[in-house]
Write a structure and sequence with these properties.
3 helices
Amino acid sequence: MILQLQAVKAIALSLWEKVLPFVVKHWKILLILALSAALFLKMRADYKAMETAYEARLESSQAQLEGLKEIHKVQMDEMAVLMDALLADLDRLEEERNRARDELAERHEERIDEIEREWSEHPEGVAGQIEQEFGFEYVE
């Protein structure tokens, strides 16, 4: 066992004597290679972390989009209900306006008939009303 240990030690020492001059001579290149390998490994780890963050952000955005679509659907349904109510109110107001217009036209016709009847019965009284109402004198 001691012999094997001595053999391993001799081989390691021989290897060290061969490697050491190479390392001393080319230390800059070896350092650049080691730093490049470390940089490459760090870049891969950062890229993987960035990719994971991107996928998480994508899933979050997708969930937000689905939520916004649901909110939009609810708003559109509410808007449709409001639009129906608005149209019903508009129809009701239009009917009231038409009814009021008809009543006004009917009262206008009644007033014209009343003035014509008064004119035929008492032309002087109507002429006085015209002078009083409009401020000009009636001439025959």
